[in-house]
UniProtKB/TrEMBL annotation:
Transmembrane segments: none annotated. This is Substrate-binding domain-containing protein. It holds the Pfam family LacI. SUPFAM superfamilies: lambda repressor-like DNA-binding domains, Periplasmic binding protein-like I. PROSITE patterns: HTH_LACI_1, HTH_LACI_2. Gene3D superfamilies: 3.40.50.2300, lambda repressor-like DNA-binding domains.
Length: 345
């Protein structure tokens, strides 16, 4: 009598090796728990029952940790992982992938990219997959500069944070120099002869909010101009925020405005025109981000400061490969934000 064969994991049905995800599903635990058990992670808090289920699933499915690495003639893979929350779907931030990919290729590595859309389960699975493929290390990136909580699995390999940071994590981070960028934007307006310069800043606490404001103040101080808090206008960091601020800009008698980002500048353009003012004849406008789809196509084209996304990705790979190190004790590397002059100042 023929007996039905037991169900096999989907990976076996496809003829590929068993993965941590297969083991996690069979054992009823998370991918992170499987990783801790098979790698004998010291200090991992795993119950005896969960550990037993993982071990039984490993034996039943024939899972072999790091099977790929054993087949590589060089003794290790030529892969670098990049795990991102949404940069692949964000046009200007997608340059991080481009920069990392070009730098990886230059040193004989292939970039494995996983865009998780901020889904924690997908993120853990992506990191686990990269660990199974014995990546040289992982770049972990966010689409805007912010502090993060480091996923636990990232501590199992060399990791560099890109466009984000985690204080006291011990992980090196490559981030844009927000203060330098704010200073550069303000200096461009000062160089055009403006002395009464307003700043439209975001209402959202972030490194960009504090850093760009610090750069604005620093440039004014260097030029011998007293900081005037009444010229700093908090606004929603979107087109609507810039448009809504236009009446107050007109009342302030400012001759130039540094905007938190290009979307704010776009809204300000509309608001100033409704008040019969021309750019740059009556008011000069400076943006930030260099979102080309906005800045280069406004009329007049918007002078701005670029977020160095390509350079962030490339620098992340160099730090990961040990070709460059962070220069500060907190393992933070700040990348210069360059000026992009056009016709709005």
């Amino acid at each position: 009598m023929n007996r039905p064969e037991p169900d096999k994991p989907e990976s076996d049905k496809l003829g590929s090796s068993v993965t941590m995800r297969d083991v996690a599903k069979a054992a009823g635990v998370s991918v992170a728990t499987v990783s801790h058990v098979v790698n004998n992670k010291p200090g991992a808090r795993i119950g005896d029952d969960a550990r037993r289920r993982v071990q039984e699933a490993v034996a039943a499915l024939g899972y072999r940790p790091n099977a790929l690495a054993k087949t590589l003639s060089r003794g290790g893979s030529r892969f670098i992982g990049l795990v991102a929350d949404a940069i692949a779907t964000t046009p200007f931030a997608g340059q991080i992938i481009h920069g990392a990919q070009d730098e990886a290729w230059a040193h004989g590595y292939v970039l494995l990219v996983a865009n998780t859309d901020g889904n924690e389960a997908a993120e853990n699975e992506a990191i686990a997959m990269m660990l199974e493929h014995q990546v040289q290390g992982i770049l972990y990136s966010t689409w805007y500069h912010r502090e993060i909580v480091v996923p636990e699995l990232l501590h199992q390999t060399d990791t560099v944070l890109v466009d984000c940071f985690a204080e006291n994590s011990g992980l090196p981070a490559v981030v844009p120099d927000e203060e330098q960028g704010g200073r550069t934007a303000t200096e461009a307006l000062l160089a055009a002869g403006h002395r009464r310069i307003a700043f439209i800043n975001t209402t959202s606490p972030s490194p960009a909010q504090s850093g760009r404001l610090a750069g604005y103040r620093s440039a004014l101080e260097t030029a011998g101009i007293d900081f005037d808090e009444s010229l700093v206008f908090p606004a929603e960091p979107a087109q609507e925020g810039g448009y809504a601020t236009a009446p107050r800009i007109v009342e302030s008698k400012a001759t130039a405005v540094f905007c938190h980002n290009d979307r704010v500048a776009m809204g300000l353009y509309d608001g100033l025109r409704e008040h019969g003012l021309s750019i740059p004849g009556d008011v000069a406008v400076m943006g930030f981000d260099n979102q080309d789809v906005i800045a280069a196509h406004l009329r007049p084209p918007l002078s701005t400061v670029a977020l160095p996304h390509y350079d962030l990705g490339a620098a992340g790979v160099r730090v990961l490969l040990g070709l460059k190190t962070a220069s500060t004790h907190e393992q933070l590397m700040r990348v210069t934000c360059p000026s992009v002059p056009r016709q709005s100042i």
